[in-house]
Amino acid sequence: MTKEKVLFAGCLVTYRFPEYELSSKVVLEALSIETHTLPELVCCGQVLQGVNPNWIYMTAYNLALMEQRDMDIITLCGGCTNTFKRVQSMCSQNPQVLDDINQVLNRVGLQFNNTVKTQHLLEVLNENTDKIMACLKKVIPLKTAIMNPCQVFRPAAVMNFDDSKHPQVMGKLLGPAVTDIIPYSFQDNCCGASLSMSNLAAAYQVGRARLEELEHKDVDLIVTACGNCHLLLHGMQSEYYSGRRIPCMFLPQLLGIAIGLSPQDVMINDPHLRSLVTSV
Amino acid sequence: MFESCLKCAICYENCYLEQMGVTSFIRLPLQEDATNIWTCSNCWTCQDICPVGIPLMELKWQLQRKVEAPPSYGASLENILICGYCLPIDSDELNPFRLDDGLEPVTLASSNIIATLLQTK
Ligand code: SF4
Ligand code: SF4
Q1: Are A28 and A37 in contact (CB under 8 A)?
Q2: What is the pLDDT of residues A65-84, one digit of tens each?
Q3: How many domains, in total, are found in chain B?
Q4: How far off is chain A from B8, nearest CA to CA, in Å?
Q5: Which of A191, A199, A213, A264 to mutate to test the interface with B (most CBs of B within 10 A)?
Q6: Taking the C-alpha atoms of B27, B28, B34 and B39 in order, what is their torsion angle to the nearest 10 degrees?
Q7: Can you list the domains of chain A with their CATH numbers?
Q8: How does pLDDT run across B38-76, given as a tens digit for each residue?
Q9: Is there a contact between A108 and B113 if contact means CB atoms under 8 Å apart?
């Protein structure tokens, strides 16, 4: 029997992008994968790495809480995926790390055995590609650009998924669902969103360069698979970009439409986005 | 810290920020001074491509922890100590929306747990 899954939304998606969490949940349901949230989860720890050396205990606390319920983890952002998998890798490579972690976790009544499995949404969808393709109901007539969540793929030795320099999975999943996937030169570059915490001008510069290229290529839609990428490209777009507004959507929203779910089902509330995906 | 560094500049040449003219943390192996250590988006390209496997990200975080962080990191830590998340999530405020949307409610961890984990008390 496959284990039950926790859909780990993390800070940004919980706070800002319920449409990503919900559309992931319903698309996974359509593939017969049931997901839940758990009480008392916390930040994955990613943001604290350069600030507090004890970030690793926050990561491990989440992992232990999910392991305790005998549930595997599906993450939605690159950062959460990256910290979970890296801490798990540190624990399996060095038993001392696991011991240290358990000394702290014992104080909050938890124990971590490193038996839980973490996968980003893209990995789960990738494993279910055949099922998804069998469910496709329509081809959405959109010129689509892909925004790869880089921390899902790198460091390659730990993340161990797809081509770490030129990820293929989003194109593979969306290729049959839309009329065109438009390749572009920035496709394999980081979105730059996390720079908004330390160097806003640089974050804007990175975002602007991508949008300028995509406008030039006449792209209709950018598809994301991480809250951070979505924040910079969608949430902050008007702060740094004065060209034609380029709409953004989370991958499970678009995929949901392609497998016959309604815009309400995948929480496409924006009237412009709705008209884009229903003009079939 | 960079004893085995070859000064080959492969990391630097492959940093997308440097390619765009943004001075990033990755000057460090070449210049060995710690300017711009916060200008990096953790894309891991430099570390993955380094031919001698220098743990660039870990070195960066170690250096970052020695200096004062940009204010937004302080705000994130404050939020975490209050609600467990790096953004100010208030479950009473959020949960009615979540239930409306068809999502399960969020239950916050106690601030004692967070403080114990981060060993701030
Ligand atoms: S991890 Fe940072 S320094 Fe390294 S390539 Fe990416 S942005 Fe540049
Ligand atoms: S790629 Fe590695 S060896 Fe070459 S300069 Fe950068 S850190 Fe040094």
Answers
A1: no
A2: 999 999 999 999 999 999 99
A3: 1
A4: 20
A5: A199
A6: 50
A7: 4-121 (1.20.1050.140), 129-278 (3.40.50.11810)
A8: 999 999 999 999 999 999 999 999 999 999 999 999 999
A9: yes
